[in-house]
Amino acid sequence: MSLVKRCRPHRSPGLPVLVVGALALAAGLAGGPASAASQDTLHDLASAQGKYFGSATDNPELPDAAYAAKLGSEFGQITPGNSMKWDTTEPTRGRFDFAKGDVITDFAQEHGQTVRGHTLVWHSQLPGWVGALPSTEVETAMTDHITAEATHYRGEVAAWDVVNEPFNEDGTFRTSPFYNAMGKDYIAKALRAAHAADPDAKLYINDYNVEGKGAKSDAMYNLVSDLLDEGVPLDGVGMQAHLAIQYGFPYQMQANMQRFADLGLDVAVTELDVRMQLPADAAKLATQSSYYAQVVDACLAVERCVGITVWDYTDKYSWVPSTFPGEGAANLYDDGLAPKPAYAAVRTALGDDGDDDGGDDGGDGGTPGTLKALYRANDTAAGDNQIKPGLQLVNTGTAPVSLPAVTVRYWFSGDNGATTYGSWCDWSPIGCSTITHRVVAASSPKSGADHYLEVGFTGGTLAPGAATGEMQLRLSKTDWSNFNESDDYSHGTGASYADASKVTVYVGGALVWGIEP
Ligand code: G3I
To answer: Is the pLDDT of residue 473 over 60?
Structure first.
């Protein structure tokens, strides 16, 4: 099946259509944004790996020029967040309105993007008249709806979420007007109707909480296995991937994707975002970054994973805060459209090497991954003449990190007495001989942070997922006068190693972890 865009003859956009068509062909799988960006876009990087990278969007967002510019340049695929849903496209039986959806397909054509159609049959955002139908009429209403919409967008929608969210969390079928009228057969009937209307579109069943192995993804697996056995036209499974750092990363996501791929199906990550409890801080954003990177890693590792769509790219237009009060910050860019740490993590996971050639050519030795610092207090005496931080670094990224490029700062105040210091490394599994340390006077001294212990490395590489192990460090003033550590910025009292956002980490001089005082 071709994913190359075709255009409806009744709305001829003229010359740009030909240009877009050529770009789409050249970019292969997923088209390519017509962009003059100076660095590879997320979609460029994904395309180099045979995948697309897309974003959801919604009509009210498009007049935001800065938003639309990035949507059109960074992403190779878009999904309408609302405008192809049943309540918008057929609010009254038999009266179709595709105006809002057409705005989305027009935008995509102007920017050389493919479109995932979302969604034909769903229990939500369903106009009241569907639920009020006698059960004997539901099948006809459903197939009429699918036929009209999939026919209208034939050639413009590369893939359809034909059926959305058919399961409850325990893997039983969700009740809906469709299930109530037809039982689970509504799914096969919907897929057949969509295939008849647009034989070239890729047809998906899409759901959330099916990213990892569990009861719900087992149910999806059993359903799609049965459908394939019955010869029902089905091309893929959509994993929405609305993740939350407080609930952990999906269990065995890559293996779960692979088992669907092994059935001969495509897999798509269709609605990725990673929310957290607000306020966001450096530690939460680092965890979020690692979740995004792990999703990219899983998709890259599974050949039949065709691409990733984020459920809008900016916190400015996220669905999360209104649905989960107190949660948010779920997207790759912040409210001001500035990229967040997760954006860099996704780039790195996609193989960015800083060149503008669509990926890592090994030419510069790779890019830094994402590091985090862990800390524990190695002494309980906060008023004596020594400070004893225990530190560890963990590579939470997907690229190896060259340790000589890394420095770590433990911030403290010298209090009264001498302003010169000595420092020591007492023990580390990587060997104290590879660890450098010195005390530096802060250029902008703050209360509790007029100095920092700067830790560096003479050699070594930290592989993705690897940790340095603990570094037992110690410092004192040359006159051995006492400190008052209790108000020191980086000081804590925890006896176990824990993520430490007040210990800052730099790669090549750029802050990659923590918050400076
Ligand atoms: O259009 C009305 C507007 O007229 C009214 O003034 C306003 C007042 O609240 O509501 C507007 O409708 C909102 C609609 O989005 C369009 O913005 C609805 O209230 C709001 O509930 C709806 O939320 C959408 C949600 O689906 C509904 O379930 C989100 O934007 C959309 O991002 C979200 O997307 C879903 C996927 O389709 C399926 N997977 C989960 C995902 C997140 O919930």
So the answer is: yes
Neighbours of 399 (CB within 10 A): 22
Rounded Cα distance between 433 and 355, Å, is 35
Q: Does the beta carbon of 82 sit less than 6 angstroms from any atom of ligand 1?
A: yes
**371-513: CATH homologous superfamily?**
Endoglucanase-like (2.60.40.710)
Domain 22-349 maps to which CATH number in 2.60.120.10, 3.20.20.80, 1.10.10.10, 3.30.420.40? 3.20.20.80
Torsion of CA 176, 178, 182, 184, to 10 degrees: -70
Q: For the ranges 94-98, 99-103, 213-217, 422-426, which has the lowest average pLDDT?
A: 422-426
Cα 82 to ligand 1 centre (Å) = 6
Task: Kindly give the number of the ligand 1 atom that is closest to the alpha carbon of 118.
Answer: 37
117 in ligand 1 pocket by Cβ < 6 Å? no
SS3 259: helix
Rounded to two decimals, the pTM is 0.69
From-to residues of CATH 3.20.20.80 in the chain: 22-349
Question: Which of 55, 82, 327, when mutated, tests ligand 1's pocket best, judged by the most ligand atoms within 8 Å of its CB?
Answer: 82
Report residue 38's pLDDT band, with 50, 70 and 90 as the boundaries.
Answer: low
319 pocket-lining for ligand 1 (C-beta < 6 Å): yes
